[in-house]
Amino acid sequence: MLDLSTRYALLTRLPLLQGISSRELIGWEETLRLDIDEFPPSSMPLIRQGDTCSCMLYLVEGELLREHRSPDGIYATRSSLQAPAIIEADRIFGLMPTYEHTYRAQTEVKMLDIRKSLISSHLMKSEVFRLNLLNTLSAIAQKRAAALQPVPQDNAESKLRQFIAALFRDCKGKVELIIHMKELARYVGERRLTVSQILNRWNTEGHIRLGRGHFVINDITTFSDRR
């Protein structure tokens, strides 16, 4: 268990809580119950895709594996989420307050949750928190709007890059796409042979690791920036 001063120094560095004084957080302690829970690495999900988002959930320390499966079951994506991070801030409220991903602990992790009802009764009274939340939600909305902008694609490789970039728009580092070649070709509107040739070339160049029914992109940021 972290001592009081260490715990609050850590909390004030978390997304949305940055800039809020330790004194203000200490004043919320009894109601918000700002305790940090620890979980060991495990293949068992801490959160499942489709679960109701009933709290504001933080990854305080460690790394989570996150997986999303498409509604039609044709493809799945895997990526990592590293601390400090807030988990799906845009899913706490709105029309569909459910998680988009399944999360598993890849390392020992520390988590903090704050009930949704306490956000409006306590956190939203802080001007700093409100501004942090507004900036976060605006950034998410702008990234998604940019990903949906129609961009002329004059060849199969450009189409494939755009499709991958849209799937991993909020990710960093190593990511994985699980999909059969035939379905991937259908998504980008190209022949299976054409898509296969592109992926094999990327594999030879070291940008991806190609496997049966899936491939790993070694660094999605570098990959997406290539032209």
Write the CATH architecture name of the largest domain: Sandwich
* CATH class category of the largest domain: Mainly Beta
Widest sheet, order of strands = 6-3-4-8-10-9
Number of domains: 2
Spatial shape: elongated
What string gives the helices and strands in order? HHEEEEEEEHHHEHHEEH
Helix content: 25-40%
* Residue windows where pLDDT falls under 50 for at least 5 positions: none
Description:
The chain has 227 residues and is an alpha+beta fold. The chain folds into 2 domains: 125 residues, Sandwich (Jelly Rolls), CATH 2.60.120; 70 residues, Arc Repressor Mutant, subunit A (Orthogonal Bundle). It is 38% helix and 22% strand. A 6-stranded antiparallel β-sheet has the order 6-3-4-8-10-9. A 4-stranded antiparallel β-sheet has the order 1-7-2-5. Helix 6 packs across helix 7. The longest helix has 22 residues. It is elongated and about 60 Å long. The termini are far apart. The relative contact order is 0.13.
